[in-house]
Amino acid sequence: MDTHKEKINLEKLPRHIAIIMDGNGRWAKKHNQPRVFGHQNGVNAVRESAEASAELGVEVLTLYAFSTENWKRPESEVNALMELLVESIHGEINTLMDNNIRLNTIGDIQSLPEKCHDELLSAIHKTRNNSRMVMNVALNYSGKWDITQAIKKIARGVKNGEIHADNLDCQDVDQYLSTAGMPDVELMIRTSGEQRISNFLLWQTAYAEFYFTPVLWPDFSKKHLYEAILNYQCRERRFGKISEQITQDKQC
Ligand code: IPE
Ligand code: IPE
Ligand code: MG
C-alpha cells in the first residue's frame, strides 16, 4: 500500500499541496453509473490524500470541491453535490479528529445552502484545535473571486486611511486573500488528464510545480500522492535564477 513512501525526502516536502479533484463523472460513466456515484466514490480519495498528507507532515492541503462555475451544472447534480457535502463532513469528522487535521474552507460559503453552511461551521469548530495539518476545502471558490474580494478589502482600507496604497507590496496582498497566513502552493495536482487551472488558486500558485495525472479522482490513492510528491522532489525549482546558482542536492 505504502509503495514509494519510503523514498520521499521529508526535508523537501511541499509545505502546501493543492488538488483539483477531477474526473468523477468520467469514472462513473466508466462504471455505467450516474455521475453522482462518481462524486460519492470521490470521498474515499479525499480521505486517502488527507491521511497521506498529514502522515507525511504537509502543512496545508487545499482541495477544490466546488467552483463558482460549477453552479452552471444541472440543478440535480448541484443538489446532489451539496447533500454529499453535508453527509461527508458528518461522516469524516472522525477521520479529521484521528489525524489531528483542522478543517478550513475557502470560498464564499455564505451562499451555500444553510444546511451545508451550518455543517461546515460545526466541523470547523470541532477541529479548531487540531494542529498537524490544515485541510482547506475550496467551496464556491474561484481564484478571480478571491483576488476580487481582496481588492475590495484593500480599497476599503485605503479609503478609510488604514492602508497606504504606495507602500502596498505582494506580501501585504497575501494577507487579504482567503489563504492569509498560509504558505503559497508548492505542488498543484490535477487528476483526470485535464491540463488547466479552471480558476483555482491563481495568485497562490505563482511558483507552484504542476503535476497532471490521467488517474480519475475516485481512483486516486495514497500511492498516487506519493508519486506526485516524488516527481515534485526531482524538479529543480529555480525561482528565476540559473541552474548553477541552485545548491539543492541533485538526487534524482
Ligand atoms: C470533479 O469531477 C468534481 C467536481 C467538479 C465537483 P467532475 O464532476 O468534473 O468529473 P468529470 O470531469 O465530468 O469527469
Ligand atoms: C474544476 O473541475 C472544479 C473542481 C474540481 C471543483 P471542473 O470539471 O469543473 O473544471 P472544467 O470545467 O473542466 O474546467
Ligand atoms: Mg471535471
What does this structure look like?
It is a single chain. By secondary structure, this protein is of the alpha/beta class. Helix content is 40%, strand content 14%. The protein has seven helices and six strands, in the order E-H-H-E-H-E-H-E-H-H-E-E-H. Strands 3-4-2-1-5-6 form a six-stranded parallel sheet, sandwiched between helices. Helix 2 (35-56) runs parallel beside helix 3 (75-98). The protein is globular and about 55 Å long. The mean pLDDT is 96. Residues 20-22, 64-67, 70, 194, 196, 198 line the site of one 3-methylbut-3-enyl trihydrogen diphosphate. One 3-methylbut-3-enyl trihydrogen diphosphate binds at residues 21-26, 66, 70, 81, 192, 217.
Estimated share of beta-strand residues: 5-15%
Reading side by side through the largest sheet, how are the strands ordered? 3-4-2-1-5-6
CATH overall fold name: Undecaprenyl pyrophosphate synthetase
Q: What would CATH call the homologous superfamily?
A: Decaprenyl diphosphate synthase-like
Number of E strands: 6
Uncertain runs are none
- Quote the average pLDDT: 96
Per CATH, the class reads Alpha Beta
Can you give keywords for this protein?
252 residues; alpha/beta; Undecaprenyl pyrophosphate synthetase; 6-stranded parallel beta sheet; 7 helices; 6 strands; globular; binds 3-methylbut-3-enyl trihydrogen diphosphate; binds magnesium ion
